[in-house]
Inverse folding.
């Protein structure tokens, strides 16, 4: 029976001490071999092409090319590679873009060495691992039922909605005042507020809006 080849790992992080620490702890793990270390994104791409690692541990915030762009480019040149993000950042503007770029797993640098090693082994088997806080954020984002964006007319008061409906019926300001038992100035006041909330410029546009959204009745 042929001996199983170790999982080849490339480290990409702009902090030398982080790379040294990772290389040291992963070097004690069975079946894992650190084949190279890169201090920036461009060097990471070059070493990935040279060493053809199975897994890349990728930092996110680096000078020059960040981890998001590095991940995107790396997977374009080596789509079979697995990128595991290892970062201190949990903010949405970094997390979701790198996952969309193709990152396979997402861990925080507070993870234990054993957790990082387990994630590497899981990635080699085609299994993703998300740090618990990351998984929680993603679940909260996607478990919410899909809801249409709030419509401008939902901001209208009951009286403003009545005015809008009467405009849609072609009523003049005087007719609206008579029907609602209010003064002309009050009608104009409601019109001004209503136009602002709907984002329209005049009563014609307001009438069109009402018909398009089924508010004319």
């Amino acid at each position: 029976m042929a001996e199983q080849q170790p999982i080849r790992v490339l480290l990409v992080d702009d902090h030398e001490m982080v790379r040294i620490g990772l290389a040291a702890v992963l070097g004690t793990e069975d079946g894992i071999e650190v084949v190279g270390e890169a201090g920036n994104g461009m060097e990471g791409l070059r070493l990935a092409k040279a060493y053809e690692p199975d897994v890349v541990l990728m930092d996110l915030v680096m000078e020059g090319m960040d981890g998001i762009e590095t991940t995107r480019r790396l997977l374009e040149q080596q789509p079979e590679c697995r990128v595991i993000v290892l970062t201190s950042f949990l903010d949405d503007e970094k997390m979701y873009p790198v996952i969309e770029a193709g990152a396979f797993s997402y861990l925080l640098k507070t993870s234990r060495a054993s957790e990082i090693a387990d994630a590497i082994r899981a990635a080699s088997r085609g299994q993703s691992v998300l740090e618990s806080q990351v998984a929680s954020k993603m679940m909260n984002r996607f478990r919410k039922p899909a809801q249409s964006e709030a419509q401008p007319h939902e901001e209208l008061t009951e009286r403003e909605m009545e005015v809008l409906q009467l405009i849609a019926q072609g009523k003049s300001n005087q007719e609206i005042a008579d029907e609602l038992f209010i003064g002309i100035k009050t009608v104009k006041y409601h019109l001004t507020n209503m136009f602002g909330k709907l984002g329209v410029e005049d009563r014609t546009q307001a009438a069109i809006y009402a018909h398009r959204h089924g508010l004319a009745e």
In short: The chain has ten helices and five strands. The beta strands are 7-12, 32-38, 55-58, 82-87, 105-108.
